[in-house]
Amino acid sequence: APDIPVIDQAYSKLSNSITVEWRAVPGATNYILAAQDGDSFVETMVKNSPGTVTGLKPATLYRITVRSVNSGGKSQPSPFRKVKTVLAAPVLSVCSPRGDSIAVSWRAVPMAAGFSVSLTRSDGLGRMLKQNTTNTSLIFTNLDPGTLYTIKAYAWNANGMPGDDCTYNQRTSPNAPVDVKVAFNSGALRAVVSWMPTEGALTYSVTVSSGLLELRCNTSSASCMVPSLQCSSEYSVSVTAYNDAGSSEPSDAVSLKTVPCAPVNVSIEEDEPGRLLVSWASVSLAHYYVVFVKSDDGLEVHCNTSHTQCHFQSDCGFTYFISVFAYNKAGQSPLGDVFNYTTAPCCPSGFRAVFVSSDTVRVTWAPVRGADLYETRAAGGSGAALCRDTATACTLSALQCSTPYNITVHSFSEARGSSTSCAPLSVATAPCSPEIKNISKEGLSVIRVQWQPNNEAATYVVTARGEAGLWHCTSTRNSCTLTDLPCGSAFSVSAIARSPAGQSLPSYSIPLETAPCCPNDLVLTQVTQSVTNISWSVGRGAQTYLTTLESPKGQAKCHTLQTYCLLGCITCGTNYTVSLRAISETGLASSCTYQGYSSSACCPSGVKLYRLSNNGIRVFWRAPDETITHSADLCGSKGNFSCTPSSGLSHCDITKIPCGDVYTVVVAPVTNKGPKLTFCPKKIYS
Question: Where are the domains of the chain?
Answer without folding.
Answer: 6-84, 92-172, 178-257, 267-343, 352-428, 435-513, 522-599, 605-685
